[in-house]
Task: structure prediction
Amino acid sequence: MTKKILIVEDDKMLCAIFEMFIMQLNYELIGISHTGKEAIELCKVNQPDVILMDIHLEGDLNGIETSKQIQELYDIPVIFVTSDIEESTIRSAIYKSTYGFLMKPIYKSSLGVTVEFALSKHKFDRENNS
Result:
């Protein structure tokens, strides 16, 4: 079964690159969101298997805050994406999500490996916490 991915990224050029990589890796792109609020709504409607989440988003919610709400509401694994090399930002993202972290620029091979890791870890976590 093809895994469904939601992109949450405010950089439209990067969204296009993610979309190309997702198609080449044989995943299904179920939506692109540019804000945290929109991402939460898309999760409710489309129920992705994994989310690629930029840490710095436009709007009221940043990526870390959005991820926390999505985890609480829908239990969907989130892979954080950022170009921010500030240690505090990286630590915060890692502490909030153990499913994955990618630094920009993103490469197709690292995206594929990270998505597979996130899906496997999420499955393991669900099986061992039920």
About this structure: The chain is about 50% helix and 20% strand. The chain has a mean pLDDT of 91. The first strand starts at residue 4 and ends at 8. Residues 4-125 form a domain with the Rossmann fold fold (CATH 3.40.50.2300).
